[in-house]
Amino acid sequence: MSARSQGGPLRGIRVLDATGVIVGPTATLMLAEQGADVIKVEPPEGDMMRRLGGRAPANAPGMAPKFLHFNRNKRSIVLDLKTPAGQAVMRRLAATSDVFISNMRARALVSLGLDAASMAALNRRMIHCTISGFASGGPYDGAPAYDTIIQGLSGVADCFRRQAGEPRFAPFVLTDHIVGIIAAQAICAALVGRGTDGPGQAIEVPMFENAAAFVLSEHLGQRTYGPGGSFGDPRIMTPDARPLPTRDGYICVSANTDAQARGFFDAIGRPELKADPRFGSVAARLENVADYFRLRAEAMMARTTEEWLPLLRQHDVPAMRAHTLDSLLDDPQLRGSGTLVEEEDMQIGEEPMLGLRHANRYSGSGTAPPRLAPRLDEHAEEILSELGFSAEERAGLRNAGVMS
Amino acid sequence: MSARSQGGPLRGIRVLDATGVIVGPTATLMLAEQGADVIKVEPPEGDMMRRLGGRAPANAPGMAPKFLHFNRNKRSIVLDLKTPAGQAVMRRLAATSDVFISNMRARALVSLGLDAASMAALNRRMIHCTISGFASGGPYDGAPAYDTIIQGLSGVADCFRRQAGEPRFAPFVLTDHIVGIIAAQAICAALVGRGTDGPGQAIEVPMFENAAAFVLSEHLGQRTYGPGGSFGDPRIMTPDARPLPTRDGYICVSANTDAQARGFFDAIGRPELKADPRFGSVAARLENVADYFRLRAEAMMARTTEEWLPLLRQHDVPAMRAHTLDSLLDDPQLRGSGTLVEEEDMQIGEEPMLGLRHANRYSGSGTAPPRLAPRLDEHAEEILSELGFSAEERAGLRNAGVMS
Q1: N or C end: fewer C-beta atoms under 10 angstroms in chain B?
Q2: Do B361 and A203 touch (CB under 8 A)?
Q3: What Gene3D superfamilies would the database entry show (chains A, B) (predicted)?
Q4: What is the ipTM of this complex?
Q5: Domains (ranges, CATH) in chain A?
Q6: Which of residues 57 through 116 in chain A touch B, CB cutoff 8 A?
């Protein structure tokens, strides 16, 4: 077996996942691809992303593309947590799990018996992770949190205003996606911390505070040292920092060191600029950043991207094309590394399907063997059997409406 | 001692950190705040971010703001890895560390004896993490990778084009920052995987592949199912998805469910729109997304943000102000949660200094007690003493130019 399929570093860890949409599924996707057994507990109607994540193929209802890409390698069971029987199955799952993750509010967790104290009573080893909108105890505690609301409140939108004139959202569910990764990291840190026989603990991962820290760590800038200082990094906040149009597309050039700047002037056939005091040092180019960026932009229009790339490389100036999403799909590095693949064994539509894979490599453990995101309730029978429910009991649960 | 200062879940883990600038320091910042002993090995001139991360106060050279915010809770030692004596100290550090992290290229690691095989020979438990630009073995292997180049190549910039007409970079070192978090997560997963007596392993965290997977997981969309499908989520890609101007600022409103849409129409005094078939369901609003967003934008101009917030809350419509970076600094939730603090014991400039803290909470382990980012070489003496170097040997290393 190759390292890539030896199971992953989290093999043997079970994650009970009561999250939906993006932030929680991002966290559990990472854990699942690293080999954790992620049991996705869905309400009878399924994770909302099954319907809102785009159009599913006719032969695979609920398998919307965004659902697929955030839920690979997980198992699905439907449990109606509004019923006592559903809660009882949940508790039995909790007793055998290492991690419980949800983005329910505190009150809802308590009413379902899924709060940290109840879980710890069932299983002292449990890492109980709550992804919240806002850290508990603060004035916004319990307020609804959606990605765009967090982008606005945390200063993400204002950074766009500073860069380009008006507040905008990033073209991603940026804070959901980032905070999901942060949650996966915190969970693994807590798994390290409990060791082989220590108790688990409760973790709270607040979206707003994490997003604001993300923004401010980059852009607190001179404001760090007092009210007189200015925010932000001028090389990032200028509207001139952008992919540069060439004759046929866009290119990204990074010429920040003195050697790169000199190489750039040679590459564009303007060697005299190497003696220009405006561009002679990092400090000088920062001072004249608008001039420097404008000069770069004007120069790039003279050739095609394919012409520029070897020329810039020859002068040791880092540069790469700016892909469109279309051209990205054909990128030889992305395909060659196996991060973007044509699914062969996991076809669900009528045409060849594109799938993504965990991008990191682990020399010893590899990652989990790839599995398609689950159909709703796909693994109910096997999960309940593993928990020791008899065929009769399983049928009873189904009849009781606990499961779909 | 409160949970917040009981040391963190990674207490007892030592991280040997040979990274600089943003991506690596982002990873080790998370580990440091979770209690790991992060030893930051700097070249004699220091981490480049000490100079490029903004202006340092006159009394604290090298303490540029961006350096400060990405290097809290770490210890610093200067080692000249070009010298055999510097390499020897490095090997002694490696023998006592759980994690080694760098973003050097493979060839440089081998030449310094810091490659995974050499490290494993010194310390079989070592988690050896390399953050690379591009997964090794592919056509871009070893090409220089900077954040903007990765943003362009991975499709981040093209998502801006799809949203707003031209390719742009995010106003963040977005891929550095995200991939740093991903690296911290992978390291902790590997620490879980080695258990109490298993061997470590080598991890590769490639920036491009991770960034492309980030983009495509959100925006592969219907293209997942074949060449005929379109990319992206139209609710995110539309230029109309943005913070909405009010009479005095900007507000973010999330009215996606039917109940929220109806509440919104009531809040703006247009209850008749509740019967408008264009807006009667999630599918209808998606179909008429431009109309829906325009209507929302027009309505918000009628009042101030402070007037809208309680009115929208009253109708159960999620909404929050879009902060400017200035107003964010006064946010009562951010301050109240202790994520943004006035530093009291760690003043280095002349005015009150602002600091950031790890945003997550850990009920059992807490986080590491806060410490300012280190001055260059601040901890050399104590680190070498811990390694068993005598006072004489330490002086010898200093004279040999190994340390600053």
Answers
A1: N
A2: yes
A3: Crotonobetainyl-coa:carnitine coa-transferase, domain 1, formyl-coa transferase, domain 3
A4: 0.96
A5: 3-216+338-399 (3.40.50.10540), 244-321 (3.30.1540.10)
A6: 57, 65-66, 68-70, 116
